[in-house]
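Work Package 3 (structural annotation) set out to generate three-dimensional models for the target panel prioritized at the project kickoff. During this period the team completed the workflow that converts sequence records into discrete structure tokens, so that structures can be stored uniformly alongside our sequence database. As a representative example, we reproduce one entry of 123 residues exactly as it appears in the project archive.
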Amino acid sequence: MTTQASDVVEQYYRAFDLHTDGWQDLVSDDVVFDGPVQHARGKAEFVALTAQFLQAHRNTQVLSRMADGNHVATLFEFVIDAPTGESITCSVAEWATVLDGRINEFRVYYDPRVFIQAFGLGD
């Protein structure tokens, strides 16, 4: 089970990083995404949010991945392009839960201050 959950998350990020649609098939219809700035409930909302993020996404560098049953924790860095053209590296800790071969929950933790400022999400 540990290997299976980790494999699902690895496949998700492989497709995500290549900007192919395969990542969409690896999330459940009732997926929940919670981060410090954005939240999504259900696949349609999550796909819309992620597709928007992928417009700025350039690279994902996985630093570490640990699995325990259906739970997979990943430490990584996203490289994203801000609307200003500036390249930003964002360190992220993520906990994903995999059920029935699909990710049904993402809990993402990062310092949102630079992200908020670069994308004009806060005052």
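The chain has a mean pLDDT of 91.
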